[in-house]
Write a structure and sequence with these properties.
- The chain has one domain.
- Helix 2 runs parallel beside helix 7, helix 2 packs antiparallel against helix 10 and helix 12 runs parallel beside helix 14.
- The chain is an all-alpha fold.
- Helices cover about 90% and strands about 0% of the residues.
- The relative contact order is 0.12.
- It is globular, with a radius of gyration of 22 Å.
Length: about 425
């Protein structure tokens, strides 16, 4: 059994299985965290917890700059480890300061400000681990990411549950999650990332420090803005719902929409697995590129659509059983969220294709259009439909993202094929002239 497993490590099938299990376990732990808070606190407390993540997510994503994906797809070794790590540490520090200032400017309550800061610290440690995942991913060691995600989810759930039960404070419970993620970073992620980088150095796969910062800024600038646009598109319905209907309605929406997070994790598992291989195929084998793209997207999309069908008759009992009677009104929201998860799977995989093709500026425009669609639908539907309107806005935003990403990726591949055909037809003519 041991040799068989060792021989499977690094293969696409093994990496997809390991990545899926890792993201599923982490998504399940995050879902369980919401359940624990729903059982031990009130919908208002769940709403404050959700709002803290909605406030901090765009800020961290703006300075995240998709460094993990840049590192994972850096087949030529253009980005030095020092440049990537310095950019991530600086981004985390700036993000935390911005969140403190933003919380004061928006005049949140003292408890909400403290919760925002606790979430910012937790996301800082998570963000550094996420960069190290890029080096795991580059070496196609998705098993290391899976173990780290499993430990991260279990550690966060256990710490939050214990501290919330003992203290009754969501702020203290979230601070305990931050401590758990810091320990995971220094005891598991960092040592293993260093070993992988050291092995590449011994094999002669050195990263070139020349112009690392210039290349990093050229790639990460537009990608960082695109990422914050995508995050805003998914969080705008939460902002509008909280402003129009209150934190209790936001708590119900958060409980139902957490299934979207689980679906997004599964889509990202497939995307992370194929990114290094897509980057190698991008300019060499367009047909193989397209086949790998479709093979990756189909299982996740089918899974999410199946859950949508199941949610129609069983949505309300499921919400009541998991969260409590106060959340039973979110049945329609749940069905729409499952549908949005299926569409988001297409968007996620196509976006990975664009990353491998180095279509950076296109991703920025697509994300901006998706956010605009989400805003327009939220303003139109939330007043009349409440949480269901917010779910429709979420689905509309990711639909725009999926369609435009798919069209752009396929158009880019077609353009490359035409260029290759033109070069091939020109070669015999040049040979005859010589």
């Amino acid at each position: 059994m041991r040799p068989l497993l060792a021989g499977s490590i690094g293969t696409t099938r093994f990496n997809l299985l390991a990545s899926s299990l890792g993201y599923m376990s982490y998504g399940a732990a995050q879902w369980a965290i919401v359940i624990v808070l729903a059982r031990l606190t009130s919908p208002e407390a769940v709403g404050r917890f959700t709002l803290a993540f909605a406030v901090t997510a765009p800020v961290f994503l703006a300075l995240d700059m998709q460094l993990r994906r840049i590192v994972a797809s850096d087949i030529k070794g253009e980005i030095s480890h020092r440049a990537a790590l310095s950019a991530r540490l600086g981004g985390c520090a700036v993000s935390t300061v911005v969140i403190v200032v933003l919380s004061a400017c928006l005049r949140y309550s003292v408890v909400q400000c403290q919760l925002n800061l606790a979430v910012a610290l937790a996301k800082s440690f998570e963000s550094i681990s996420d960069l190290l995942y890029g080096y795991f991913q580059q070496s196609e060691r998705m098993d290391l990411i899976a173990v780290s995600l499993w430990l991260k989810g279990i550690g966060a759930l256990a710490m939050l549950w214990i501290v919330q039960w003992q203290t009754g404070s969501v702020v203290y419970a979230t601070a305990a999650v931050a401590c758990a993620w810091f320990l995971l970073l220094i005891l598991f992620d960092a040592p293993r990332a260093w070993r992988l980088c050291h092995k590449r150095h011994l094999r002669g796969e050195r990263t070139r420090n020349t112009d690392s910062w210039r290349i990093l800024l050229r790639l990460s600038g537009p990608l960082g803005i695109a990422l914050v646009m995508a995050s805003l598109g998914q969080n705008i319905p939460r902002y509008v719902l909280e402003a129009r209907c209150g934190q209790a309605a936001l708590g119900v929406y958060a409980a139902a929409s957490h299934f979207f997070v689980v679906g997004a994790r599964l889509a990202m598992a497939a995307a992370d697995t194929i990114l290094p291989r897509l980057s190698r195929l991008a300019n060499l084998a367009p047909d193989e590129f397209k086949r790998l793209l479709w093979r990756s997207i189909s299982p996740v999309a089918v899974f999410c659509i199946t859950l949508t069908i199941i949610a129609v008759p069983f949505g309300r009992p499921l919400l009541v059983q998991i969260y409590g009677t106060a959340y039973g009104s979110g049945k329609t929201t749940l069905v729409i969220v499952f549908l949005a998860s299926g569409v988001n799977a297409f968007a996620c995989i196509f976006q990975t294709g664009l990353m491998a093709l180095r279509q950076i500026n296109a991703q920025l425009g697509i994300a901006a259009l998706g956010a605009v669609a989400s805003l327009l639908l939220s303003e139109t539907l939330v007043d009349s439909l409440g949480s269901a309107g917010a779910a429709i806005a979420l689905a509309g935003g990711v639909s725009v993202h999926a369609v435009l990403s798919g069209v752009t990726a396929l158009a880019t591949l077609r353009s490359q094929e035409r260029t290759a055909e033109g070069n091939a037809s020109a070669t015999p003519v040049a040979s005859r002239m010589m």
